[in-house]
Design brief:
Layout lengths: L1 H8 L2 H16 L3 H7 L4 E10 L5 E12 L5 E8 L4 H18 L4 E8 L7 H15 L8 E5 L5 H15 L20 H20 L7 E5 L5 H10 L3 E7 L2 E4 L6 H11 L9 E3 L1 H5 L5 E4 L18 E3 L8 H9 L3 E3 L1 H4 L2 H15 L5 H26 L3 H20 L4
The protein binds glutamic acid.
Length: about 425
């Protein structure tokens, strides 16, 4: 309960600004540039009506934030969650700016969200909500302007509805307005797996650096959605032993290892991983502190805080989620010799393949899965190597190292463009 209260008090926007300040200070960014990069360029708040199945009208609140557009159009997902608020979306948009810069894809940072628990809506209500939200966003989005993608509780179907709504409004089909679409609508091969695939590529690079053999490693994964679920499957494919996974209802633990395909089947059949035969039910908080070699937080923000960082046993932490670790926890983990692959690097595979999808749409081209994964591997490995190099050279943790690279790139783009007017 105490931990729960603490988590609720941590403000993601405050965390994001403090992470930026650390890098800006080290880079000795000019004060004016610092003020520009510290705030989002624009934020849209909408309240919009949706006709529910019982005939009543419900009003929902949604946000779209564009943090910095110096390097290209805004890019970032849309999440549906009951706890979404403006500060969270601002933080997520800022993180997208740095993420795109770390891997060098030509986008700025954006993010959107709707305050809703989608598990309480019917498919028809979800479609209505998505189409009306897309209409409200139409003053901002577009293939050259702002390109949404899936995030927490949204998926390829959500993107299909947004793409269709936007296309109906302009009168012709515009595939490049969103990424993460179904493949028949111009979605890219490999996009669904891309975030998890990128997580695993960075884990391979980190393991090589640390001298860890993945076939001898135990892995705990928090979250069983598009990132956590697929990361668990891919880590098992690498020969690692996945000892714990979790979802919103709780975690399951089996020290000898879990059969991830069977856990997925159980989750599809029952709606949760909890209660998987042969495993022990534990809490999400307990999962983080398990005796494991690798920990993949792939759920929500503020999971590793000053309250539990000292008890994390994993040597390697790979942030599949955005913002799972607070700045205080970063310091504790670094002091304890933990190696953390930060979100803006670790989970950048998703937006990287989103970029591939956008390029294919604009070029009317189709890439093979082999080509997508080869290019993804090349980009992730290069980004990991430059971050590690900066971390060793500057004697800072991997998060600050990634920020040094990213913030410098965005600062260069922003300052060389100059001030208008
Ligand atoms: N929502 C994902 C993220 O947080 C993907 C964003 C995108 O592909 O635009 O990185």
């Amino acid at each position: 309960m105490a931990t729960q209260q603490l988590v609720a008090e941590i403000n993601a926007w405050d965390v994001a600004q403090r992470q930026f300040d650390l890098a800006a200070e080290r880079l000795q960014l000019p004060a004016g540039l610092r003020k520009v990069l510290r705030e989002p360029k624009r934020a849209l708040i909408v309240h919009f009506p949706v006709k529910m199945d019982d005939g009543e009208v419900e009003v929902f609140t949604g946000y779209r934030v564009q943090h910095n557009l110096s390097r290209g159009p805004a890019k970032g997902g849309i999440r549906y969650h009951q706890n979404v608020d403006l500060d969270e979306v601002k933080a997520l948009a800022m993180w997208m700016t740095w993420k795109c810069a770390v891997v060098g894809v030509p986008f700025g940072g954006g993010k959107g969200g709707v305050v809703v628990d989608p598990s309480k809506l019917s498919l028809r209500e979800l479609e209505g909500l998505t189409r009306r939200f897309a209409t409200e966003l139409s003053i901002l989005i577009g293939p050259e302007r702002d390109i949404p993608a899936p995030d927490v509780n949204t998926n390829a179907q959500t993107m299909a509805w947004i793409m269709d709504t936007y296309s109906m409004n302009v009168g012709y089909t515009v595939p490049a307005v969103v990424t993460g679409k179904p493949i028949p609508l111009g979605g890219s091969e490999g996009r669904t797996e891309a975030t998890a695939q990128g997580v695993v590529y960075t884990i391979q690079d980190a393991a090589r650096h640390l001298g860890m053999d993945l076939r001898k490693c135990r892995v705990a994964v928090q979250g069983f959605g598009n990132v956590g679920g697929i990361s668990a499957r891919l880590m098992a494919k690498e020969g690692a032993t996945v000892i714990a996974v979790s979802d919103v209802r709780g975690a399951i633990y089996r020290p000898e290892g879990l059969d991830i395909e069977a856990v997925s089947a159980h989750s599809r059949a029952t709606g949760s991983v909890v209660g998987f035969p042969g495993s022990r039910d534990i809490s999400n908080a307990e999962l983080l502190e398990l005796d494991t070699d690798i920990l993949i937080p792939a759920a929500m923000e503020n999971q590793i805080t000053a309250a539990n960082a000292g008890r994390i046993q994993a040597r390697l932490i790979a942030e599949g989620a955005n913002g799972p670790t607070t700045p205080e926890a970063d310091e504790i983990l670094y002091a304890n010799g933990k190696f953390l692959i930060p979100d803006i690097l670790c989970n950048a595979g998703g937006v990287t393949v989103s970029y591939f999808e956008w390029v294919q749409n604009l070029d009317r081209d189709l890439w093979s899965i082999g080509h997508v994964n080869d290019k993804l591997h090349e980009i992730m490995t290069r980004a990991f190597a430059s971050t590690l190099e900066a971390s060793l050279r500057e004697q800072v943790n991997m998060r600050t190292a990634a920020y040094l690279l990213a913030v410098q790139r965005v600062a260069d783009a922003t300052s060389v463009r100059g001030l208008y007017p």
